[in-house]
Amino acid sequence: MFRNQYDTDVTTFSPQGRLHQIEYAQEAVKQGSAVVGVRNKNYAVLATLKRTTSDLASTQKKLFKIDDHVGMAIAGLTADARLLSKYMRTECLNYKYVYECAMPLSRLVLRVADKHQIATQRVSKRPFGVGLLIIGYDQQGPHLYETSPSGEYWEYQAMSIGARAQSARTYLEKVFETLNSCSLDQLCRHAILALRETVAALKDIDLSTKNCALAIVGEDLDFTIYEDEDVLPYLDVIETGSSQPMDGQSST
Amino acid sequence: MFYSLSTLLIPKILESHTEIKLYILHSHFLFYTHTHTHIYIYIYMASIGTGYDLSATTFSPDGRVFQVEYAQKAADSSGLTLGMCCKDGVVLAVEKVLLSKMLLKESGRRVHLIDQHAILAVAGMGPDGRQLATRARQECEQYRNIFRMPMPAHLLAERIAGYVHVHSLYWHVRPFGCTILIGTWDGKQGPALYMIDPSGTFYRYYGCAAGKGKQGAKTGLEKLDFHQLSCEDALFELAKLINAAHDESKDKPYEMEMIWIKRDLGKASLVPPNLIETVRQRAEQLAREEEMAD
Amino acid sequence: MQLVVDPVRHTTSPLVTGGSVIGIKCSDGVVIAADTLASYGSLARFQNFSRLLKVTDSCLLGGGGEISDFQEIQRLLENLTTQDFCFNDEHKKSPRSLHQYLGRVLYAQRSRLNPFWNSLIVGGYVQSQSFLGMVDLYGTTFESEVLASGFGVLLGLPLLRKAYRPDLTVQEGIKIVEEVYRVLFYRDARSINRIQVATATVDGVTISEPYSLETKWDFKGFVNPRSTYDESTW
């Protein structure tokens, strides 16, 4: 491929000052199936596309609950994500044990991003090959964060990562300014529609109760995963193709 | 091979770019001449691929540590980062490039609070910079625990520079891909500004620049009188320099981040967003007027 | 060869100590008070030592027991608030969080058989809610409307419980703790009639300058102790 002598080690800079191993790890994120995250003033929502290796196998795990107020969707290596989710769960539990309150999202994400960074500076480690979309609700309201194998992290109004995430981002960039005034229902619909953009170009795939899962967290709602038949009510949007609920009513 | 090639090139460079003389004298700084890409590529050719540039623990035959120099390249890959040491405090500013319009304000911050009296800004790889910020906080905390007073700037800079430096000594870690600016104010010593590069070298400055376009910014900084400059005035000067470094037609949109520690506030804080917005608009307005005048 | 190693010994008794701390929850805030004495055994060694601490803009701490341990706890809390300051993310520790944190710290220390020899009272006022909690040297945490430590448990709590009403104001609370300290000064030999009163209200946290309580010593039993001893041990 693009092989060069500077790309086999995270501890070696290329003459241009780049770290190819980090960039390759970021490619692993793009190989994972797509996930979408959106938020309004009171809720944050994740929508994910689950792959399966065979009809006899279960689908890949894309959503992880971290604590009552935090959860995440992953794109990339599932095993790396499980390791990180265990770390995040422990952090949340420790925080609750010491301070008797839920861990603020900003601090949790900072810690997990710092963990990513450490894996980019040592010979004995490799970068994590996974991107996370983390949603949660704390004293400052709902949050949506993305972390990258490089150790960078950002907070967004709406974001998508994974395979063909660019088409989802194109959709989201059109609507993200309206999200704050959306109802929860509309928010979920936007998430589903954005996710659908990532499979729109594929002939033999469409979103269904089998391959789509949703997660919501908000002011009066602990992090909850909706999959299988529970996700059905949210999929009707695919028929109508509109962010408005089918019955035409939108509660804001 | 390196010398013979560069010696061959010198007359050619002098011919077209007389201002480059300085870099020829310090030949290992040649990478910084971004504008003369075709030239530095020739000089690279002399040493890359020879196997002397794969580890920070390897010297090249002419006495250079290439991995550290490459890390310095990484440190100059992000937006412009500036520091000004004024008569009543220190201000640091960063041009933070925005990768998406869906990002929230203050997301991926590059300026950090270190202690009540200390601030830090990062040029280059943000995550590496965060690691150094964490380290700086620990140093300040330990100093406070022992001496019950804020850590003096020169000690803080020395400790962090030492930490950066040891990352250029071992094969099992890589150097930090960032240059950091540290600003402090304390009652006894007043304001102080330090810059630490990936080799662990550090100096104290009145004004300093790192990141993309630092050459131009340095020229601008040298025109200021830092003995007279107040923090309030520095905001506008910083905004002007960042605005000048940014090519609106070519570069991605950016957010201006500023952090300061000044006498009348008593402790470090991020500069309020409305203040930054005001000076940014003034700087952009001024640039437009100057363009019109031309 | 000596096979028997002496057991490790930590502090088994406090040296420089502070006396009672009193706390009372009010409808519009909390009041915490302490006298300003740090005793060295039975010697009234430091007579102007502040045992009250402003931790955040909404949270107070009062400490009794070993003074050096209290100073160590003060250092831990300063580190904690500086860390919060550096995050710059608007997440400040609530009084409840600090209470829990101190509970964990004191429990961890006692589990190493090296306790912080203190009783701590945490008070705060956040989002129109008063908080008052206590931590002892075992790491036990509990909350109550009225709290006291040291001799205050024996002499102060009955008075506090009698005077407590859910609709107490901070001003009334201050009067009550002053009365409690007067009683404590008459009977507790490790006390002084110089106190500080701290309040946490919607306006934030204030700690008063130390001031002296008026005392009366013309009570018959004080003037001529023998006459009361004839009637009872008190």
Automatic annotation (TrEMBL), chain A:
<dbReference type="InterPro" id="IPR001353">
    <property type="entry name" value="Proteasome_sua/b"/>
</dbReference>
<dbReference type="GO" id="GO:0005737">
    <property type="term" value="C:cytoplasm"/>
</dbReference>
<dbReference type="GO" id="GO:0016787">
    <property type="term" value="F:hydrolase activity"/>
</dbReference>
<comment type="subunit">
    <text>The 26S proteasome consists of a 20S proteasome core and two 19S regulatory subunits.</text>
</comment>
<keyword id="KW-0963">Cytoplasm</keyword>
<dbReference type="Pfam" id="PF00227">
    <property type="entry name" value="Proteasome"/>
</dbReference>
<dbReference type="Pfam" id="PF10584">
    <property type="entry name" value="Proteasome_A_N"/>
</dbReference>
<keyword id="KW-0378">Hydrolase</keyword>
<dbReference type="GO" id="GO:0006511">
    <property type="term" value="P:ubiquitin-dependent protein catabolic process"/>
</dbReference>
<dbReference type="GO" id="GO:0005634">
    <property type="term" value="C:nucleus"/>
</dbReference>
<comment type="similarity">
    <text>Belongs to the peptidase T1A family.</text>
</comment>
<dbReference type="InterPro" id="IPR035144">
    <property type="entry name" value="Proteasome_alpha1"/>
</dbReference>
<keyword id="KW-0539">Nucleus</keyword>
<dbReference type="GO" id="GO:0019773">
    <property type="term" value="C:proteasome core complex, alpha-subunit complex"/>
</dbReference>
<feature type="domain" description="Proteasome alpha-type subunits">
    <location>
        <begin position="6"/>
        <end position="28"/>
    </location>
</feature>
Automatic annotation (TrEMBL), chain B:
<dbReference type="GO" id="GO:0006511">
    <property type="term" value="P:ubiquitin-dependent protein catabolic process"/>
</dbReference>
<comment type="subunit">
    <text>The 26S proteasome consists of a 20S proteasome core and two 19S regulatory subunits.</text>
</comment>
<keyword id="KW-0963">Cytoplasm</keyword>
<dbReference type="GO" id="GO:0016787">
    <property type="term" value="F:hydrolase activity"/>
</dbReference>
<comment type="similarity">
    <text>Belongs to the peptidase T1A family.</text>
</comment>
<protein>
    <recommendedName>
        <fullName>Proteasome subunit alpha type</fullName>
    </recommendedName>
</protein>
<dbReference type="Pfam" id="PF10584">
    <property type="entry name" value="Proteasome_A_N"/>
</dbReference>
<dbReference type="GO" id="GO:0019773">
    <property type="term" value="C:proteasome core complex, alpha-subunit complex"/>
</dbReference>
<keyword id="KW-0647">Proteasome</keyword>
<dbReference type="InterPro" id="IPR001353">
    <property type="entry name" value="Proteasome_sua/b"/>
</dbReference>
<feature type="domain" description="Proteasome alpha-type subunits">
    <location>
        <begin position="52"/>
        <end position="74"/>
    </location>
</feature>
<keyword id="KW-0539">Nucleus</keyword>
<dbReference type="GO" id="GO:0005634">
    <property type="term" value="C:nucleus"/>
</dbReference>
<dbReference type="InterPro" id="IPR050115">
    <property type="entry name" value="Proteasome_alpha"/>
</dbReference>
<dbReference type="InterPro" id="IPR029055">
    <property type="entry name" value="Ntn_hydrolases_N"/>
</dbReference>
TrEMBL record, chain C:
<dbReference type="Pfam" id="PF00227">
    <property type="entry name" value="Proteasome"/>
</dbReference>
<protein>
    <recommendedName>
        <fullName>Proteasome subunit beta</fullName>
    </recommendedName>
</protein>
<dbReference type="GO" id="GO:0016787">
    <property type="term" value="F:hydrolase activity"/>
</dbReference>
<keyword id="KW-0378">Hydrolase</keyword>
<dbReference type="InterPro" id="IPR029055">
    <property type="entry name" value="Ntn_hydrolases_N"/>
</dbReference>
<dbReference type="InterPro" id="IPR001353">
    <property type="entry name" value="Proteasome_sua/b"/>
</dbReference>
<comment type="function">
    <text>Non-catalytic component of the proteasome.</text>
</comment>
<dbReference type="GO" id="GO:0051603">
    <property type="term" value="P:proteolysis involved in protein catabolic process"/>
</dbReference>
<dbReference type="InterPro" id="IPR016295">
    <property type="entry name" value="Proteasome_beta4"/>
</dbReference>
<dbReference type="GO" id="GO:0005737">
    <property type="term" value="C:cytoplasm"/>
</dbReference>
<keyword id="KW-0539">Nucleus</keyword>
<dbReference type="InterPro" id="IPR016050">
    <property type="entry name" value="Proteasome_bsu_CS"/>
</dbReference>
<dbReference type="GO" id="GO:0005634">
    <property type="term" value="C:nucleus"/>
</dbReference>
<comment type="similarity">
    <text>Belongs to the peptidase T1B family.</text>
</comment>
<dbReference type="GO" id="GO:0019774">
    <property type="term" value="C:proteasome core complex, beta-subunit complex"/>
</dbReference>
